[in-house]
Amino acid sequence: MITVKQLHYCINDRPILNNINHVFERGQFYALAGPNGSGKSTLLKCLCGIERHHTGEVWLNGQPLAEYAHRDRARMQTYVPQQSHAGFDFSARQFVMMGRYPYQGTFAAVTAADRELCHRTMSLTDTLHLAEQSVLTLSGGEYQRVVIARALMQQTPLIYLDEPFSQLDLFHQSAMLHLFRELCVTQGTTVVCVLHDFNQILAYADRVVLLSNGAIVAHGEPYQTLTPKVIEQVYRVKTRWASTGADALPGLLPAMPVTDTIGALEKQAEAVGAK
Ligand SMILES: Nc1ncnc2c1ncn2[C@@H]1O[C@H](COP(=O)(O)OP(=O)(O)OP(=O)(O)O)[C@@H](O)[C@H]1O
């Protein structure tokens, strides 16, 4: 569905993404993982066309992404950024309803079907009780769920999410992960989601794409890909498999004691100072 070929991206001559080649298949939940600064957000922006100053190609359903008209693209894909600000004093319901813009003409009124979809989407994201509240007054987690609801209103077959659950409590993280997984399974939606939590990746993702220093260093099924050996190479942290119950698949735990992270940071600082 999405094909990335030889994608390179530099800022001020510094390579940020280096020769990215990958195919993202329909109906799969992809986790995009990697250390801070490894290029996950930048790659997501290149995939959805927000960042266009790269070389290489991004194709969507057999057509270069750049050839899609803006409105067609908004009906094909939605993107939830890592950070966003409400900006104006809309109610949560008005804000969520904005997700229908790609389907509305300039002077089109909101339809009964739009209203029903909005009601269902706000129920699913547990935001219905906030419908009349100004988005400017929502808590961090409430606002994040409203942003997710607006993205869902676009009803796109492709969803890009950049750490969309970072401010959600455990219940809402789990509910949102279930919801996106369900969309993959029942609607054939493709989800590409930046996630830092290995156990969430193991539990919900079909595939993981692991970035390090702007390059894909591993990809595949999470249990085969996120091994303690790979994690130590990429993150400099030792982990071990831990049983999570009789019938459950094992999870990953940091091995105690955690490796000498302070020592590693001091060495890194010395290396930067020596440059
Ligand atoms: N406008 C910019 N100017 C300079 N450097 C930039 C700019 N935008 C991104 N970078 C650098 O590009 C690298 C990749 O950034 P990116 O946001 O893609 O990382 P990430 O993997 O999403 O990190 P995180 O896990 O911290 O969110 C970082 O080192 C960042 O500092």
Give short descriptive properties of this protein.
alpha/beta, globular, four-stranded antiparallel sheet, 275 residues, Rossmann fold, 10 helices, 12 strands, binds adenosine-5'-triphosphate
Quick overview of this protein structure:
36% of the residues lie in helices and 25% in strands.
Major sheet characteristics: 6 strands, mixed
- Oligomeric category: single chain
Ligand inventory reads: adenosine-5'-triphosphate
- Kindly provide the radius of gyration, computed on alpha-carbon positions and rounded to a whole number of angstroms: 20 Å
CATH fold-level assignment of the largest domain: Rossmann fold
Mean pLDDT: 90
The percentage of residues in β strands lies in: 15-25%
Shape designation: globular
Number of helices: 10
What does it look like?
It comes from Breznakibacter xylanolyticus. This is Iron complex transport system ATP-binding protein. This protein is of the alpha/beta class and 275 residues long. The chain has two domains: 2-235, P-loop containing nucleotide triphosphate hydrolases (Rossmann fold), CATH 3.40.50.300; 236-275, no CATH class. Helices cover 36% and strands 25% of the residues. The protein contains ten helices and twelve strands. The strands form three sheets. It has a six-stranded mixed β-sheet with strand order 6-7-8-3-9-10, sandwiched between helices. A four-stranded antiparallel β-sheet has the order 2-1-4-5, covered by helices on one side. The model has no long low-confidence stretch (mean pLDDT 90). Adenosine-5'-triphosphate (ATP) binds at residues 11, 16, 34, 36-42.
